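In this section we walk through a basic example: taking a raw amino acid sequence and producing a predicted 3D structure, encoded as discrete structure tokens. The instruction is simple. Fold the sequence below.
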Amino acid sequence: MPTDDAQVAESRFQTGIDALNDGKLDVAAEALSDAEIRFRMLHDFKRAGDSRNLLADVQRQNNQLEMAANSYQRAIKLYRDAGNTVNQAGSTLALGHVERQLAHLDRAEEAYQDAWNLYTAQDNALGQGNAALALGHIALQRGRVEQAIEHYTRAISYYVKAGDSINEADARRSLADVLRLIRHFDEAIAEYQQILKVYEAMGDQYGIVDALVGLARVYLDQRQLDKAVDTFAAAYNQAQVLEYELGTADCNLGLAEIYLLRNNIDQALISAQQAQQSYTDRHSDLGIASASRLLGEINTRRGQLSYANGQMERALRLYKAEGYRIGQPETTVGLGEIQRLRGFLNRAIQTLEEARRLARSLQNDQAESQALLGLGDSYYKQGKVIQAEQSYSEAQNRMESSNSPGHTTGMAEAAVRMARLSVLIGRLDGAASQLATARSVTTGNELASQLIPMLLVVEGQLLLTEGDFPQAEARFSDAHNRAEGIQEPFYAAEALLGLARTYLSRSELEAASSTFLEAGRQFQLLESTDGDGAAMLGVAQTLVGQEQWDEALELCEGALVRFKQADDQLGQADAQLALGLAHEGNDELDEALNHYDQALTLYQQQQQPLGESDTRFERGNVFRLRGDLDAAMNEFSKAIALVERVLKTLSTPQQWSTFLRQYAELYAQAVITEVRLNEDEQARALLTSFVRIAGLPPIEKYLKAYEDSLPTGGENMTEEEIRANKDLIKRLRQIQKGIVR
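The resulting token sequence is shown next.
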């Protein structure tokens, strides 16, 4: 017969169990703690261990994880004292689960290994399977994919030995998840389909939801979006019936990714927010992290960069707190991209380099390629041409060797960026080739539709550089409309900027000014410091065209400040050139020359031949105004050499003609200066070379304007001056004779 003390201990133990079943956790905790003390006083260490183990379960349900870990450790000791290795192994496994929840991965792994050893000593196949499965989760969390596969495979074999079909299916589902991550899609699909049959046969409705979600994610990764939608919908409906909140959250998150890929941004936002709320309600930190990362991407697309930045940082903190390395590369790439768009280029480069290292360590080619593209974009803005080209080229190579279903779209992304870089450094044939490659990918490709606005913007930049203003305007207009249609506000603003520059090139100053102002408003909404600077500089350039020098100077200075804040070296070069023009217009030639010198240094560092050419032309004009014709001619000659270097990268006579007409004033000033230096034959040769490609009319108007500006009479002129001017006009007309128009 049990003693009274034993009866009381048993009574308190039962009270604890009843309270736990009723959800009265505080009552359960008090009763079980009392029961443990009473059993220990009776030296019944097995029952004391049972009490402490249940108390740990209560504390775990109460989210008192540190207390639960301590309780499991005490239970383990009590079971050890009782010589009960079966229960000791169970408590050790449970301790590992708690340590994993606390992100103490080393402790969790140690506990799981201890549990496996105990189960092995008992030849307990089910226990061995549970421990091996848990070890697989730890390995996956740390990004050790091969090790995870090994553990999951072992777990499956143990469950088969134990005849436990449900746990075997759970282990197979974990294995399928890993196969999906490493892009062994056919194997993953086969596993999920086999798992579904087991769950259906056993009536495990929750398992069916989880398997369907896994299968849907394979279809999503394969970019079979219709199949993915149907499978997520089936899983969602099942989860709704079961009131399985985490299942519905997983479905909403997957659907949000699909909406984002299909440019349905508003619906993506709603689904991702619903997923995040469900994860929050269920205290799923990894779920919250995944939803926050996706919301960061969505809000980046919407142009809400500060909000997106906060969400990406939150996701990264949660992944790191959980020791979950798998989710970190994409999140770090997203954070770096936001930093780049906000103009924090040095910080973005550091973040993207970290993302690249993470992605490489986890063999995540797609994330590594995206990091490389972001690095290339950052170096591009800084005018570091070699580093940008290397990054883009490496991204292309990664994409080419990838078996990702979206690798062709990624290659097109890299090609468009390489084309933009080629335009900058004057390789116009290379730009055209890269754009043609990208065009071939985007044609009829639903997933590449997001790339089309950027492609059109770069095509517009190429056409603008070539001097084909009508076609450039058409491309920029198309880019703007398409970008707005798919909610790509950054490219919509970029397209407006390109459109305004086209108007400026055609001297349509009012249209240019209003379009630059509209682009500036868009960039301000997008928190784009360098974009705002570019729009402000554009307005300043229209004011230069209108000879409003003081207003132009003020805006140029404002633009320069913004470019410096964003470390935008390309913008700084353009701003220095514009400042020089404004000072020159104000007859402040020393100041103008100082700014031209700074612009020249930047353009040379950036390997921008046409920017350098424009700057040398303006320097030549300053020297000409000062009467230093030799220095002026030296600058004009260098400017012409740079223009002709770029000209040689074009492939058709029509392109040569269109391009060279933009530089008629440069050639005209060079011809005039050669004549003034009494180098008439050189002047004639230079004029002939221009006319042979671009025709006489574009340059003739500048020569005629110069002739008309030379006075050939008047009381304030000496006979010698009149004679010199008449002679100069005569010689200018003479070199034009016989030239085929």
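Looking at the output, two observations stand out. The mean pLDDT is 94. Residues 629-647 form the longest helix (19 residues). In the next section we compare this with other chains.
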